[in-house]
């Protein structure tokens, strides 16, 4: 970009005064900024909402055997409860960009946190499995909204701190993933209501997140990707595509091999995550470990992506491509699955650590959604596509894994998981390629 202040260019202008120099601005340069107090509130909101995107899932898995004493659950319930989170995330991911365009990202996230709170609270009062699943689905819809909306909110409010705030987002999401299974069983043993009391803790934290985003909505109003979004003078309004994203952004995504590869990489990362969220504790319990120990193992598995997620987004922003790291993670996943398949109780901690390293492709893939899109509008469209279609792909994981275990034991289920790792390794090169979509 030519700058008239540069000496060389100034000399040319003196010799040729008829030359006209046009200043090119960044897509973000003409966007107004919010007051510092609003930015602080949004940062608190990102932390609060990000934490509550997973406890309703990972905090339940170690309690399933306790829950079975009060609520009649069987193999169908286990398959559905494992498939429900990614299925809800996928469906919501497809429609959320349209809601963002119509109502604004802040308003949509406030509603999403409200759904998490309502579903998490009301399901505790239900004595039957079916209504419990339905209310869980309501909470998961709210979590799915947060999955899609938080990345573009980071891009909107902190356009020059995307890598740092992506790190914060990924870190609190992973903390909300690993901490609940660590404390789920101990909380159930000391709180009134047993497993219901344990799950009530996460209903309270989601209520706090709702309060923060209501305050953000009152202070910040709409958002720059919503109907209140200001446009630079002379900038035409974008026509909307069926997903709610600007037609140009959505068209580029559908035509981009990198976007499709990133979707598959993210989807298969979640494919493994939700298999392990559902079956990792159960497989260890069936192999002879105690429920408490199995819950601790799941917590350890989830804490590893949290620790790595503290540095992965910033590191990925500084290198040309993280494809080699993805391949290393895939190798760890293969080793962990093989260990759980052939000798689960021989070294449960080792298999857990290997799998925790392996599923760390997920925080890396989340960071790439922001790093491979140039504008908040592009980020919203890419986030909706990657997480919507990706979670629909991931929804098949727990169901197929459980079906194959019931059908033919461990071999078919673990072969399915190992095949998914191979596909991850293949698409990683295109997904991690440098540049913007």
Automatic annotation (TrEMBL):
Broad class of where this protein is predominantly found: membrane
Gene3D superfamilies per the UniProt record, alphabetical: MFS general substrate transporter like domains
Positions with biased composition (Low complexity): 232-245
InterPro entries membership: MFS, MFS_Cyanate_Porter, MFS_dom, MFS_trans_sf
Pfam families, per database record: MFS_1
Superkingdom of source: Bacteria
Chain ranges of the Major facilitator superfamily (MFS) profile domain: 38-436
Name of the protein: MFS transporter
Organism: Brevibacterium samyangense
């Amino acid at each position: 970009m030519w700058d008239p202040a540069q000496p060389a260019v100034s000399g040319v202008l003196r010799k040729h005064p008829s030359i006209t120099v046009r200043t090119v601005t960044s897509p973000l340069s003409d966007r107004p900024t919010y007051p510092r107090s609003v930015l602080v509130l949004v940062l608190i909101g990102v932390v609060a909402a990000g934490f509550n995107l997973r406890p309703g899932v990972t905090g339940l898995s170690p309690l399933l055997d306790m829950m079975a004493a009060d609520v009649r659950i069987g193999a169908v319930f286990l398959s559905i409860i494992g498939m429900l989170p990614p299925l809800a995330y996928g469906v919501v991911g497809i429609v959320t960009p349209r809601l963002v365009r119509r109502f604004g990202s802040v308003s949509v996230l406030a509603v999403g946190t409200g759904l998490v709170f309502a579903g998490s609270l009301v399901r505790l009062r239900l004595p039957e499995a079916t209504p419990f699943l339905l209310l869980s689905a309501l909470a998961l819809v709210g979590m799915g909204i947060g999955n899609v909306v938080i990345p573009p909110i980071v891009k909107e409010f902190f356009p020059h701190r995307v890598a740092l705030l992506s790190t914060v987002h990924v870190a609190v999401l992973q903390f909300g993933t690993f901490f609940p299974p660590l404390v789920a069983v101990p909380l159930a043993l000391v709180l009134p209501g047993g497993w219901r009391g344990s799950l009530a803790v996460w209903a309270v934290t989601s209520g706090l997140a709702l309060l923060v985003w209501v305050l953000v909505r009152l202070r910040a109003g709409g958002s720059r990707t919503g109907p209140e979004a200001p446009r630079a003078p002379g900038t035409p309004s974008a026509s909307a595509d069926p997903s709610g994203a600007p037609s140009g952004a959505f068209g580029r995504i559908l035509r981009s091999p990198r976007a499709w590869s990133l979707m598959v990489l993210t989807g298969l990362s979640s494919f493994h995550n939700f298999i392990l969220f559902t079956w990792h504790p159960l497989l260890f319990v069936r192999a002879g470990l105690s429920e408490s120990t199995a819950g601790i193992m799941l917590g350890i598995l989830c804490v590893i992506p949290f620790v790595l997620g503290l540095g992965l987004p910033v590191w990925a922003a500084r290198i040309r491509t993280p494809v080699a790291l993805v391949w290393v993670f895939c190798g760890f996943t293969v080793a962990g699955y093989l260990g759980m398949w052939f000798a689960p109780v021989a070294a449960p901690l080792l298999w857990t650590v290997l799998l925790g390293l392996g599923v760390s492709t997920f925080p890396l893939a989340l960071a790439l959604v922001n790093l491979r899109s140039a504008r908040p509008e592009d980020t919203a469209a890419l986030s909706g596509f990657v997480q919507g279609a990706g979670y629909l792909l991931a929804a098949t994981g727990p169901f197929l894994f459980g079906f194959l275990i019931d059908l033919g034991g461990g071999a078919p289920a673990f072969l399915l998981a190992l095949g998914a790792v191979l596909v991850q390794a293949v698409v990683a090169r295109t997904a991690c390629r440098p540049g913007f979509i």
